[in-house]
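ARCHIVE CARD
Drawer: 12
Card no.: 0347
Subject: one protein chain, sequence and derived structure
Cross-reference: see card 0346
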Amino acid sequence: MRGLIIGKFYPPHRGHEYLIRFACERVDELHVMVFYRADETIDGHLRAAWLRELFPQVVVHAQFAEHRDPHNPCDEAGWHAWIAEIRSVCAEKFDFVFSSETYGEELARRLNAEHVMVDRQRVVVPISGTRVRENPRACFEFLSAPVRAYYASL
């Protein structure tokens, strides 16, 4: 069984780690796609490297993508771009899409996969990338060692 997780991981935090561990327990092969844009302050390749360090058993891809985040299920052009980006990196079929976001159901549908929602309300791990970016030092307990080291060096 093959699984997929997409996201910005901007930066990776304990919530992302929980999602990845949850997915790893349910599939034989997990792909994590780190989408990044030019206007982000933490390089996408660095974010992907952190995830590879934390999860050596996972196939982690860094993919440049300037288009919008997939939040509108009726935005055909946006969805076409997202699916094309995913397929350009990994053309094989995914059995599952794991997410903590509302777009996960539509993404899974468009990939002919089953969606698995994980901790949507952030109850298990109460953190978000937005909250980390707003005040990284106040969120150190939610950051793994390489991400903490990055913020500590700033």
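Annotation on reverse: The chain has one domain: 2-152. Residues 2-152 form a domain with the Rossmann fold fold (CATH 3.40.50.620).
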